[in-house]
Amino acid sequence: MTAQVSTAEPTTASASHSDDVLISVRNVGKMYRMYDQPQDRLKHMLLWRFGKHYGHDFWALRNASFEVRRGETVGIIGRNGSGKSTLLQIIAGTLAPTEGEVQVKGRVAALLELGSGFNPEFTGRENVYLNGALLGLRREEIDARFDDIAAFADIGEFIEQPVKLYSSGMFVRLAFAVTTNLEPDVLLIDEALAVGDVFFSQKCYRRLEEMRTRGTSIVLVSHNLVDIQQFCGDALLLHAGQMAFKGSASEAVRRYMLLDQHEQRPSPATTRQLDPAAEPIRHSKPGHLSWPSSEAFLNLTAVKQVADGSARCTGIAVCDTHGRARHTFEQGEHAVFFYEFEVLREISVPIGGLILRDNKGVTVHGKNSLQVDANVPSHVECGDRVRFQQEIQLSVAIGDYSFEVGLSSLEHGIFEQRAAYAHPDLYSHIQYHCHLPSAGVITVSYRRQGYPTQLMHHGVADLPGTIHVAVLPAQAAEDDRRDP
Questions:
Q1: What is the pLDDT of residues 237-249, one digit of tens each?
Q2: Whether residues 196 and 318 fall in one domain
Q3: E strand or H helix that includes residue 397
Q4: Where is 170: in which H helix or E strand?
Q5: Which of 11, 17, 218, 298 is the most buried (most CB within 10 A)?
Q6: What's the average model confidence in pLDDT over 41-70?
Q7: Are 345 and 386 in contact (CB under 8 A)?
Q8: How confident is the model at residue 88 (pLDDT cuts 50, 70, 90)?
Q9: 351 and 204, same domain (yes or no)
């Protein structure tokens, strides 16, 4: 068995097709010796020369072959133990293959297991310089990038503290900021984005998209199949250490689901138990809303508000239809968003709206009160508070979602004639008063029980529609084909 790992700086001497291949993996395998008892390891080391063998060979990965070209994003999926992390570590050069050949061109940066590449005793600042040096950057180059790295990580004064004091989220923030700011040719990511919150995840995907546009090749290992489908062009499916499929990301995910169809489905995140006797939220009388208790409202102290001085947000709550505060919902459940604004200067017809974004920052839903036949006043006076209650059925993909809310207004005369306006003309008259771009986060999980299946749909969102099925007997089908 032979194994080889090599790296080379990309050259401009040749414009050949092969110059665009930054990662080349050929027949790579990794074998471990497994022992039934701890003492068998020592016995094997001492006696194998005399024909005494203990333990057995275990191939964590075998016969892996693929290429990644400049600017491509390739996902790697598979069950736990299928060899995903092993393959990524071999590409990164932190693990030697037992057989096969790996060639990587250019500067390689990797986000592998939490803590890799960082000295826990060093401060965040010191680790930035350590990682930069490992990637071959001069101190002056790191100096020029440091402020951008610190701003992206956004961990404040902790940048001067030893990283052993960091939470997992803070650690990933700094590691991602360092790795992506040092402009690698190849970026390897092993589940690192699963640790951060949804707002940081959105920022990360924007950065990855920028890197991909600049020509960085990205290899992403993830259990989040939605991420693989939406972000990766191609994907590898590993099963029991073998490459079961290599091709489009959507087809790789489909085949993974077929492999996994007999496995137990994941349990949903814990949700609050509903009181069957509880009454759903209802309008108490025209112009008034049944408002949640103060305990249901989010703490807005650290939430950024972008305002023109006409209004400020004084409360946001997310509840179920029974009025109980929730942040986790099962797919298909209804979430009720309550938001309130104090008017600081008189405004015209108030318009409230909400936007829901996935972990990559993609808008999956957005709607405001102008788009529904809501009962609204002609104006709101200074000192008054305007409240909105917005209910949404969460027929969206499983995952975390950020939401934002805002208040705007429209002159009463234009509001009365809104149906006659073209969309661009109507929205050009809207006055924007207060916007909370990162108001909060909700999670959509699998249904505990579902009919006809636990998962309602595939893809980003459910679209209303029907499916009808019919079976034609063989003779009827033949007659149907003959009938012009």
A1: 999 999 999 999 9
A2: no
A3: none
A4: helix 168-181
A5: 218
A6: 82
A7: no
A8: very high
A9: no
The per-residue pLDDT for range 172-210, each reduced to its tens digit, is 889 889 888 888 899 999 877 666 678 888 888 899 999
Question: CA nearest 146: which of 123, 165, 129, 131?
Answer: 129
The encoded tokens of residue 280 equal: 């759903």
Question: Are 65 and 195 within one domain?
Answer: yes
Tokens at residue 163, please? Answer: 């990283």
Give percent helix, percent strand, percent coil of the chain, each to the nearest 5: 30, 30, 40
Neighbours of 243 (CB within 10 A): 22
Same domain (yes/no): 212, 349: no
CA dihedral angle for residue 109, residue 114, residue 118, residue 123, rounded to 10 degrees: 130
Answer with the one of 259, 286, 311 that is the final residue of a domain: 259
Say which residues have a Cβ less than 8 Å from residue 339's Cβ, sequence separation at least 6.
Answer: 313, 315, 316, 317, 352, 354, 387, 388, 390, 405, 439
Is 320 inside a domain boundary? yes
**Residue 61, in any domain of the structure:** yes
Q: Which CATH number goes with the domain that contains 53?
A: 3.40.50.300
- CA 401/CA 424 separation, integer angstroms: 28
- Number of domains the chain is built from: 2
Question: Rounded CA gap, 396 and 458, in Å?
Answer: 9
Report strand pairing: 399-410 vs 349-357.
antiparallel
* Cβ(163)–Cβ(144) below 8 Å: no
Q: Which helix (H) or strand (E) holds 351?
A: strand 349-357
Same domain, 228 and 323: no
State yes or no: pLDDT of 4 exceeds 60.
no
Query: In 3-state terms, what secondary structure has residue 436?
Result: strand
Tokens 């949700």 -> residue = 271
- Domain that includes residue 40, residue range: 3-106+185-259
Residue with tokens 């964590």: 60
Residue 420 parent element (H or E): none
User: DSSP labels for 252-303?
Assistant: HHHHHHHHTTTSPPPPPPP-PPP-TTPPPP--SSTT---PPPGGGB---TT-
Task: Convert the pLDDT of each residue in 204-216 to its tens digit.
Answer: 889 999 999 999 9
CATH of the domain at 369: 2.70.50.60
Residue predicted with more confidence, 450 or 200? 200
Choose the final residue of a domain: 237, 259, 281.
259
User: Which residue in this structure is represented by tokens 């993909």?
Assistant: 397
Residues 72, 96 contacting (CB under 8 angstroms): no
Q: Which ranges constitute the DSSP H helices of 21-167?
A: 38-47, 84-92, 124-134, 139-153
Whether pTM > 0.85 for this model: the answer is: no
Whether the Cβ atoms of residue 355 and residue 402 lie closer than 8 Å to each other = no
